TrEMBL record:
Enzyme class, broadest EC rank: oxidoreductase
Enzyme Commission number(s): 1.5.3.19
Upper classification of the organism: Bacteria, Pseudomonadati, Pseudomonadota, Alphaproteobacteria, Rhodobacterales
Aminomethyltransferase C-terminal domain span: 725-803
Domain FAD dependent oxidoreductase: 11-366
TM ranges: none
Pfam families: DAO (PF01266), FAO_M (PF16350), GCV_T (PF01571), GCV_T_C (PF08669)
Designated gene of the protein: abo_8
Residue ranges annotated for the FAD dependent oxidoreductase central domain, each copy included: 370-423
Domain (GCVT N-terminal): residue spans on this chain: 427-703
Protein name per Swiss-Prot or TrEMBL: 4-methylaminobutanoate oxidase (Formaldehyde-forming)
Family recorded in the similarity comment: Belongs to the GcvT family.
GO molecular function terms attached to this record: 4-methylaminobutyrate oxidase (demethylating) activity
The entry's keywords: Oxidoreductase
The species this protein was found in: Ascidiaceihabitans donghaensis
Source domain of life: Bacteria
Length: 807
């Protein structure tokens, strides 16, 4: 007799792959018994069952590496708890390099591993050949060995999690299709299935490659698409060592692992294809896709060269299965921004087995606590905009993520698909002057400017790319003459209404009750005293304010503000991002350039720092605010799109005789790091309190209207706990800093780089770094080094930036 569904559950989980089972297991183990998981077919029947089962702990970020490290711990323990063997073999892994840049990348990954206490060390070619005797060592320069990596059986691991979930009180039902997530007044209320309706407080979308389609039904963007992914399994190979480490050759686009006396080898494709563009067949269950030899021949040839025994060994299994890839290579994990109680865990880019246990635990912890318990901002569903969740965009962009899986993970690498979508009014004028464009949230933004005769295209390096000197020259202009920068793509949200001031006083830490025509830099905190965002607020009228956000956080900041508007408040939010083009003019000669084209008094007395005025440039009405992200004297000039090119031309003509130079994002990043200006998502997030990053001074706990998180801010400041954001400069002028390099104090790891750049004015690589210390004062003592590609480089670490911002 078929058991009927319950009428209510505290949590309904949709999807019986490794992620759904992990969420159910961790909720139930923590004591949440009223949990039901619904699977449309059979557990693991989507993509989990055909995963290669690689378990590599070192991933691309702090959060994903923490997930994978936890996964190894669980793999070692879950059999004792459940009696189900997950098939874990800790045979280690070796990643090889066939060129110097790849070797630099691998060494940097090994450096990163030290932050987590994961053993990873350089292995010379002869040692690799001895440990992996089937490998052709020609051209191999060395590699990185991680002894604690390995592989697991995807089905057995998932079944172990499912068994553990049941043991702890959760219910798992197969052959139940969720047809609709039910909602009311912006909150989930349950699910409607083919077997009836279940009311629920929380619904979790772990639908794998179905997660996007399921989310679309409720306006929840899940930016992923299924792509074709191949692997092959050989016939048995006599005397094949059973303890072979997993071997990865990124440049060959291939990985190999021993599989019951055979070799399984899979591909990171050079040319990937989106699958099921018209929808996934209803009947899909443990299905595979047609194997098209031409799709993999290029990589197959490289594989057979790297492991020559493949040339004389038969292939038992030619497999092509769908895997989900996201538009930006990041997970989607967290609560939907516009639908309370709707959580998502999906789009993990073929890392489900190694990341699934940890990701499921992180989401379970979030659900139980009501907030993320570690920094998961990179995965936030609120990072995407509506157009990025549409199938046409995802079908173009997501296959590139698969292609890039084994490609070089260059700092600042730009995508090539779905480009040119959003262009500011200065796109064409700047392109004619050599702009080389980077992309952020679909916006085309100058990264650097190519002088005449230089190719206008990005190249990449962990050291000095071909455009390095050009970006240095842009920094020089900003520090010594004058720079002009396109800021048009920054978010601009108008907050208006009779209660706008009271509202902003409540959500902002700084005092927003300033005269009309003033600009305030402020934080927005959560109830735990963590930093949700940093923005500028310009008062345009008694009841009218403009909140400016960074490019990638515009939607997130708008969601945060919208969530805090009380039902009885007269507060209206309006996105004005595209209403104004914006040019920043900054540098010692910025005042001279503006004075040549307008009749407003630009003196400090008449136009002070953090003030706003309206005037004309040429024939165009504009308004400008006196501040600059470069740290130099500067103005941000707001122009309606129709006058934008005219203003650009007028400023250019006036500025060139004074040394004006167009400046892109590469130089701007270095300029802001040198001056100590922070970037949310790198230098701070919702886990850090203002005192940790040196921004306590813009938090005003004595305002008449207490700000959100005020009590927590005061408490955390009094506790004085770190880690603390500091500023670092290398003594050696040669190495570059990018992100995540370990920081040593007296030889021990005490922190890592949050942001890195090469500062022209300092003649060295600089950055911001988080340092674990008993208190801020103790940071100044001790001898510091930064590890770069396995070498410890002497460095200065201090609490203040290396160059004081000018106003």
């Amino acid at each position: 007799m078929t058991q009927s569904l319950p009428s209510h559950a505290q949590v309904v989980i949709i999807g019986g792959g490794i992620h759904g089972c992990s969420v159910a297991y961790h909720l139930a183990k923590a004591g949440w018994k009223d949990v039901i998981l619904l699977e449309r077919k059979a557990l693991t029947s989507g993509t989990t069952w055909h995963a290669a089962g690689l378990v590599g702990q070192l991933q691309g970020s702090h959060a994903t590496t923490a997930f994978a490290s936890y996964g190894v711990e669980l793999l070692q323990e879950i059999e004792a708890e459940t009696g189900q063997n997950p098939g874990f073999r800790q045979s280690g892994s070796i990643s090889i390099a066939v060129n110097e840049e790849r070797l630099a990348e691998l060494k940097r990954k090994a450096d990163f591993a030290s932050l987590f206490g994961i053993e990873a060390h350089y292995m010379p070619t002869d040692a690799i050949a001895e440990r992996w005797p089937l490998m052709n060592a020609d051209g191999v320069l060395g590699g990185i060995h991680m002894p604690s990596d390995g592989s697991a059986n995807p089905i057995d691991l998932t079944q172990a999690l499912a068994k553990g979930a049941r043991m702890h009180g959760a219910t798992i039902r197969e052959r139940i299709k969720v047809e609709e997530v039910l909602t009311d007044a912006g909150k989930v209320t349950g699910v409607r299935t083919n077997e009836g309706t279940i009311t629920a407080d929380v619904v979790v979308n772990c639908g794998g490659m179905w997660a996007r389609e399921l989310g679309q039904k409720n306006g929840v963007g899940v930016p992923l698409h299924a792509c074709e992914h191949y692997y092959l399994v050989t016939e048995p190979i006599p005397d094949l060592p059973s303890d072979l480490p997993v071997l990865r050759s990124y440049c060959d686009g291939t990985y190999w692992k021993e599989d019951a006396g055979k070799l399984l080898f899979g591909f990171a494709h050079f040319h990937a294809k989106a699958w099921a563009k018209s929808g996934i067949p209803e009947s899909f269950e443990f299905d595979s896709l047609p194997f098209i030899e031409d799709d993999v021949m290029e990589v197959l040839d490289l594989s057979m060269n790297r492991v020559p025994i493949l040339q004389e060994t038969g292939i038992r299994t030619f497999f092509n299965g769908p895997e989900s890839y996201s538009h930006d290579g990041r997970f989607t994990l967290g609560e939907a921004p516009d639908l309370k109680g709707y959580y998502v865990l999906a789009g993990v880019n073929s890392t489900g087995i190694q990341s699934g246990p940890g990701a499921g635990k992180a989401l379970a912890d979030w659900i139980m606590a009501g907030h993320p318990t570690l920094d998961l901002a990179e995965m936030d569903p609120a990072r995407i905009e509506d157009w990025q969740a549409r199938d046409p965009y995802l079908q173009e962009r997501c296959p590139e993520t698969l292609v890039l899986t084994y490609a070089m993970h260059w700092p600042g690498r730009q995508r090539t698909t779905a480009r040119g979508l959003r262009r500011t009014p200065f796109y064409h004028p700047m392109k004619t002057k050599g702009a080389v464009y980077a992309e952020a949230q679909g916006w085309e933004r100058p990264g650097w400017f190519a002088p005449e005769g230089v190719a206008s295209e990005y190249d990449y390096s962990f050291h000095r790319p071909s455009w390095f000197d050009h970006a240095q020259a842009e920094q020089k202009a900003a520090r010594e003459d004058v720079a002009m920068i396109d800021y048009s793509m920054l978010g601009k949200l108008m907050v208006e209404g009779a209660d706008a001031l009271t509202f902003l006083q409540r959500v902002c830490t700084n005092d927003i009750d300033v005269p009309v025509g003033r600009v305030v830099y402020t934080l927005m905190l959560n109830e735990r005293g963590g930093i949700e965002s940093d923005v500028t607020v310009a008062r345009h009228g008694a009841d009218s304010f403009m909140v400016m956000s960074s490019i990638s956080h515009t939607r997130r900041d708008a969601d945060h503000l919208r969530a805090h508007v009380a039902a009885d408040e007269d507060v209206r939010l309006r996105d004005a991002t595209t209403d104004h083009a914006v040019l920043s003019v900054a540098g010692p000669k910025a005042r001279d350039v503006l004075a040549a084209v307008c009749d407003v008094d630009l003196s400090n007395d008449s136009f002070p720092f953090n003030s706003l005025q309206k005037f004309h440039i040429g024939h165009a009405p504009v308004f400008a605010q006196r501040l600059s992200y470069t740290g130099e004297m500067g103005w941000e000039i707001f122009i309606t799109p129709d006058f934008a090119e005219h203003v650009f031309e007028v400023l250019w003509e006036a500025g060139v005789p004074l040394g004006l130079r167009l400046v892109g994002g590469e130089a701007l990043n270095a300029l802001r790091v040198e001056k100590g200006f922070l970037h949310w998502g790198h230098d701070m997030s919702y886990t850090e309190a203002p005192h940790q990053v040196g921004l306590g001074f813009i938090c005003k706990p004595n305002k008449a209207v207490p700000f959100v998180g005020c009590d927590a801010f005061v408490r955390r400041k009094a506790d004085g706990k770190g880690p603390f954001l500091c500023h670092v400069k290398l003594h050696d002028p040669t190495p570059l800093l990018h992100h995540n390099e370990p920081v040593l104090k007296d030889g021990a790891v005490v922190g890592y780089l949050a942001s890195g750049a090469y500062a022209y004015a300092q003649g060295a690589a600089i950055g911001t770094c988080f340092i674990d210390a008993a208190d801020r004062a103790s940071v100044a003592s001790g001898a510091y080094e930064v590890v770069v590609e396995g070498k410890a480089i002497a460095a200065t670490v201090q609490l203040k930036p290396f160059s004081k911002p000018l106003s």
